[in-house]
Amino acid sequence: MSRTDTTRPVAVPAGDAPRSADTETAPRRSRWAVSGESRILLLVLPVVVALVFGAWAWWRATADLDSIEARQLAWGLILDLIWQHVKLTLVATFFVLLVAIPLGIALTRPRFKRAAPLAVGIANAGQAAPAIGLIVLLAMLLGFTFGTAVLALTLYAVLPVLRNTITGLQGIDPTLVEAGRGIGMSGAGVLFRVELPLAVPVIMTGVRTALVLLVGTATLATFVNAGGLGTLIVTGITLFRYPVLVSGALLVALLALLVDWAGRVLERVARPKGI
Amino acid sequence: MSTTTPPSNTRAGGTDAPGNPDVSGVDLELVDVLKRYPGQKKPAVDGLSLHIPAGEIVMFVGPSGCGKTTSLKMINRLIEPTSGTISIGGEDVRGRNVDQLRRHVGYVIQGGSLFPHLTVAQNISVVPRLLKWDSRRTSERVDELLELVSLDPAKYRDRYPRELSGGQQQRVGVARGLAADPPVILMDEPFGAVDPITRQRLQDELLSIQEELRKTIVCVTHDIDEAVKLGDRILILQEGAQIAQYDTPEAILAAPANAFVEDFVGAGSTLKQLSLSRVSDVELVHPTTATVGERVAEVRARAEANGDQAVVVLDERRRPVDWMWLRELAAADTVRPVRDDVLTLDRRATLNDALDMMLTSTHGAAIVTGRRDEYLGVVNFTAVTGHIQATEQQLAEGRAADATAGRDDAWEGGGA
């Protein structure tokens, strides 16, 4: 190779080249490698819940209860109420996901991007409205049924999932989306194979928040005749039976903790490997 | 196991092999391509016409905002041109479904842009899967490509991107771009995100891959040194993607078309010339070598006979593993390397790279390797300065001859 021109003096390039790190490799990390705090939550929480529930069951078996209390705290009734409560929570969660995730996806597409603040505003209003008012008003319109309770709970819990779906999708490095399109993935392909998997951790955090909200709010379902552990609390208050009231509150709290724990486990399992 | 076996032919490693019959790339043609963004007065790309010959690397360089990336992205329609035609192998890019088109045009992005939730193998096989290759063909292709970019398939196939270094991620990015064996590959600042030594290594690897594959590669960079090193041709763009000069690196350095090019190429144009010369162009020296496991006493005797203070230690496949001072050898009976990574230069590395490495080396020189990392010799300052002087002399003679032939011609385009 022959060179063709130059009369300028030779200078030597500055030797600022660091040693190559190319052979080094980032350490491998398992998805179960978690920080201390979340490990405590994951391992200790179910134990605490089991202990407290065990203590309550022991009290229930040995306590000296009058006939009203004994009827209210009969095992069959308690299990029914717990099941109703869980059902309310899960069905409402199902509808929350059904509404919030597709809506969140739509609101991050270029076409509807501008509607996002409006939708989040409406969802915000849904959550800010007193849940009891929402449930009772809807019941007056639609009747005192399980369906009404689920509808009210769904409206109430859409916000966290919607907001986290939008945040999660917006947080994705746009160069990854462009890379996907640039190598020939379709828009839907990029959405389902790149964007949603990467947004899963953030979306799941929203889902967990919604679940905990729903467990708590489902206590109000009793006002529209939809059952749940709220029944115990209301009965306890109206009949001045504190053991019943406290039992209801305690069981709701334990259920909320358990649901929160399940949400954390779900978050961890659903998180794609590699991120 | 003898001392200084001279490599058979150190000058054989040039990058210029025009007319290679194994070209797998196709021509690219841009005619009057214009891109106007709504609400902007001036077009971002204003009537760019360009022919890119099959099997060549063309580097797009220019200041930021000159439209080089826009021009690149119009080739695979990530950006749709407002008017004009772009054809790949004679076929208008607008004639095809956009996703289909992109599956047949490689795309490599800065940092690799790997999907973090997919393994290396899954990342590479995205396009083969879109093209409905069967899984066996896909996994064979993945391994083949990993070998090509110097990553051990068994070790890296199932890793996630965050378990790789920056350079390794970029390699996988290149492999992904090559996955479906596209005739044209577009690269957008491919090596911008890695450290200088890794970048140099990646550039050398790209050149060696290209030597084998002869694709048509269009590469955007802001680094004129990278352009000079990698490009068969360089396209220097001014604002609005106006062509300032489109020529071989040699021609651009020798005769910048105008003041803009001269400014852009920069004052250290002699220095740039260093990016044009490959290590394979200079005379290598051959210090004493030793093979792992050899008796230290013999090696020491040989080194002393040659007057060397250090020996290059090779493994049984003649790959350099260490460069040891004699005092480091003294510790054992047989030769055993003490470092685990010795820095080496590919024979395709530029003299610029060589100087860089020599300056950081305690030996004041750099080990040169050829195909499959085989040891070729050592390049030192004397060799480099000797080469520069020879070139200067050649140029001076050429200029003197030009001056007598036609006075003004020699300075044409000098842009005083």
How would you characterize this protein structure?
The complex is a heterodimer of chains A (275) and B (416). Chain A is mostly helical and 275 residues long. Chain A has one domain: Orthogonal Bundle (MetI-like fold), CATH 1.10.3720. Chain A has ten helices and no strands. Chain A has helices spanning 36-62, 67-72, 75-108, 116-128, 131-142, 146-170, 174-182, 187-217, 230-238, 242-270. In chain A, α3 packs across α6 (146-170) and α5 crosses α6 (146-170). By secondary structure, chain B is of the alpha/beta class. Chain B has two domains: 21-267, P-loop containing nucleotide triphosphate hydrolases (Rossmann fold, 3-Layer(aba) Sandwich), CATH 3.40.50; 281-384, CBS-domain (Roll), CATH 3.10.580.10. Chain B contains 16 helices and 16 strands. In chain B, α5 (135-148) crosses α7. Chain B is flat, with a radius of gyration of 24 Å. The chains are: A mainly alpha (275), B alpha/beta (416). Chains A and B meet through α7 and α8 of A and α2, α4, α7, α8 and α10 of B.
Short account of what is shown:
With 275 residues, chain A is mainly α.
Return Rg of chain A in Å. Answer: 27 Å
Arithmetic mean of pLDDT of chain A: 83
Give the DSSP E fraction of chain A (strand runs of 2 or more residues). Answer: under 5%
Total tally of structural domains of chain A:
1
CATH class of chain A: Mainly Alpha
Low-confidence stretches of chain A: 1-24
Number of distinct beta strands of chain B: 16
Characterize the overall form of chain B: flat
How many structural domains of chain B?
Answer: 2
CATH homologous superfamily classification of chain A: MetI-like
The percentage helix of chain A is over 70%
What is the overall pLDDT average of chain B?
A: 84
- From the N-terminal CA to the C-terminal CA of chain B, the straight-line distance is 57 Å
Q: Major beta sheet of chain B, specifics?
A: 6 strands, mixed
Strand content of chain B: 15-25%
Give the CATH architecture of chain A.
Orthogonal Bundle
Biased composition (Polar residues) (chain B): 1-12
Domain ABC transporter (chain B): 28-264
Keywords (chain B): ATP-binding, Nucleotide-binding, Transport
Region (Disordered) (chain B): 1-23
